[in-house]
Amino acid sequence: MPELNNPVLPRMFYRKMGSGPVMVLLHGFPENGLLWRNIWDKLCGSFTLIVPDFPGSGNTPLENETDIAQMADMVKEILDYEKVDSAIIAGHSMGGYVALAFAGSYPAMIKGISLVHSTPVADDVEKKKARLKSAELIRKGGKELFIMQMVPNLFSDAFKQSNPLMVKAQTEEALKTSSDGLINFCDAMRLRNDSRAMLKTAGFPVQWIIGLDDNIMSYKKILIESHQSDINFVTFYRECGHMSMIEAPERLARDMEIFGRYCQKSEYRVYV
Closest by alpha carbon to 210, among 236, 229, 231, 228? Predict the structure, then answer.
């Protein structure tokens, strides 16, 4: 799989593969761009994929504290370097927050947004407290404990029971993320802006991938938000948690391809 470490943008490593319209795949927390490895071969026949590692994960070092808006700016710099005028932005969980921030700052560049187990709602008070607690645990040397507890919880109970080796592999991959990177991600998510007002006036389609067994984000809460924009693709995944790119890769790739092809149309129609 080709990899591009852009000398002009040393802050952000990314992979580029495939051909066709551009689709950007943004990973969630506490992962890196390899999160998408089970579906990128299925998508790169229809799309040019750009898959970054956010600062502090994968091959991108954390040089300075980086918030969600700055991560979105980094994605913009990559697209500018690649001479891409518009793209579909797909984001998993935290990556969805970055996708929404990108859309808020650069709406003319958006053909569509795919929110994969993500939400436009900012953290409430309790969630902010939990993120502060997580960051403090990691800061005190509890990174391994945090990852060992968090990552298995991202999967549905059924998937964990039938695929323990896959859960273990993803846990080991998450452990590669630096402690400073994990802390920065916790802070960035805690301080991010709410994006619901932006979606209400969005002129682009939004895809919502929702796991019915998601332990991180309640499907009922996401369903309420999934009508914020005028054009919505809403799909429920049964017996799936927060990680459909691993739990249901064939289906996710198919749904994202259908959505991506729709986004190429010059005229949109409402599809809910």
Answer: 236
